Amino acid sequence: MSYMIAVFKSRRDAMEFGSAMMRQGVRVTAVNTPRSISSSCGLSVRFPRGAIIIAERVLAMGEYFSFKGFYAV
Question: How many domains does the chain have?
Fold first, then answer.
């Protein structure tokens, strides 16, 4: 199974996004951000690739000013 990660500059935003995804029924995991992607907060949210539409919706509904992007892993 392939995954996506959502990368944030803020740990708070990453944790809030992860909680919002779980409320939508998506299984998420907090993971270390790969150094090749960012040297920011170091925490990202991993979720199944098939949940990208839900992730985009959650992102649009919140105020995640530190969001850096989605990456396929």
Answer: 1
Which domain, by its residues, includes 35?
A: 3-72
Angle (nearest 5°) at CA 56 between 60 and 52: 170
The C-alpha atoms of residue 14 and residue 31 are separated, in whole angstroms, by: 10
Q: Which residue has the tokens 């170091």?
A: 42
User: What CATH number is given to the structural domain containing 40?
Assistant: 3.30.70
Question: Which pTM value belongs to this model?
Answer: 0.90
Distance between CA atoms of 30 and 43, rounded to whole angstroms?
7
pLDDT (tens digit, 9 = 90+) per residue, 44-73?
A: 999 999 999 999 999 999 999 999 999 998
Residue position matching structure tokens 């040297």: 39
Examine the pLDDT at 5 and tell me if it is beyond 70. Answer: yes
